[in-house]
Amino acid sequence: MSSSVSPKIPQHVAIIMDGNGRWAQQRGLPRIEGHRRGVETVRTITDAGREIGLHTLTLYAFSVENWNRPQDEVGALMGLLEYYLKKELNTFIKNRIRLRTIGRTQDLPAGVQKHLNHTIEATREFTDYTLVLALNYGARTEIIDATRAYAAAVAAGKAKLNDDAWATFSRYLYTADLPDPDLIIRTSGETRLSNFLLMQGAYAELVFTPVFWPDFSKADLLAAVEEYGKRERRYGLTSAQLKNPTPSAP
Ligand code: IPE
Ligand code: IPE
Ligand code: MG
Q1: Is there a catalytic annotation at residue 18?
Q2: Is the CB of 213 inside a 6 Å radius of any atom of ligand 2?
């Protein structure tokens, strides 16, 4: 780890990988070439996350809204995903990386689902470092799916409607057994969340960088982590309270 990096390392970093298309267009290349280069960055950053000691890295790879892109681009993205999964399996095992997904993966092409399931199964035991791919993910669909599951549990007598603790409801989210993101990074200069982890990111620190995803490097990740280290996470308290915590009343 570089000595310039703050020792305050986030447990969970989530990244909105944006700018593949513009990266390609700037070079007079087809958009898919940007996606291809983006896959290389996924490899680099997955490795970098492990090296700096993250516990969880979530990458927003395909949103529910992305189906509305031109069909040839959607097809190419699905092809790339399958290729990536096939190619990375050995690396995941060698580097002890657990793969997880969030999103409606049941609606992905059968070939992609097959490789996803195989990789998830093969890496299930590795608990030190988890790579979460957000695939066919949308925060609003996640809330709908969670609410349905919660309602079904209430109907089956397994949950109580008057239990309004967030800890209870959040068990029905895709992220049930994952920590909330501490830091959300978005590349490409856009400063929006685009339906990504809206509930889980309630208290995440946000870092936006102009770098397009294919150019995003380990140094850029370290810079974002360093920026995170300078932030004071107050969770509704005052700065003075954080500095001098009073013991809670008996
Ligand atoms: C991110 O890059 C990849 C996906 C959303 C799948 P984009 O494809 O959105 O690139 P831009 O934003 O058009 O440059
Ligand atoms: C968000 O990027 C989705 C992913 C990175 C997978 P988009 O490029 O789809 O987001 P918008 O359309 O610019 O908000
Ligand atoms: Mg984009």
Answers
A1: yes
A2: no
% pLDDT > 70, the chain: 96
Q: How far apart are CA 208 and CA 89, in angstroms?
A: 31
DSSP string of 187-219, one letter each residue:
-TT----TTSSTTTTTT-EEEE--S-GGG--HH
Ligand 2 site, residue 16, Cβ cutoff 6 A: yes
Q: Give tens-digit pLDDT for 119-147.
A: 999 999 999 999 999 999 999 999 999 99
Q: In the annotation, is 145 catalytic?
A: no
Tell me the best of 136, 194, 213, 216 to mutate to test the pocket of ligand 2, counting ligand atoms within 8 Å of each CB and taking the most: 194
pTM (two decimals): 0.95
Q: Are 4 and 226 in contact (CB under 8 A)?
A: yes
Tokens of 29: 């290349």
pLDDT in tens, 211-236: 999 999 999 999 999 999 999 999 99
Give the residue from 13, 1, 4 showing the smallest Cα distance to 196: 13
**Distance from Cα 35 to the centre of ligand 1, integer Å:** 8
Q: Which atom of ligand 1 is nearest to the CA of 19?
A: 14
Indicate the DSSP class of residue 130.
E
Which domains does the chain show, CATH number per domain? 12-139+180-243 (3.40.1180.10)
Q: Name the active-site residue from 18, 20, 136, 220.
A: 18
Ligand lying closest to the C-alpha of residue 134: 2
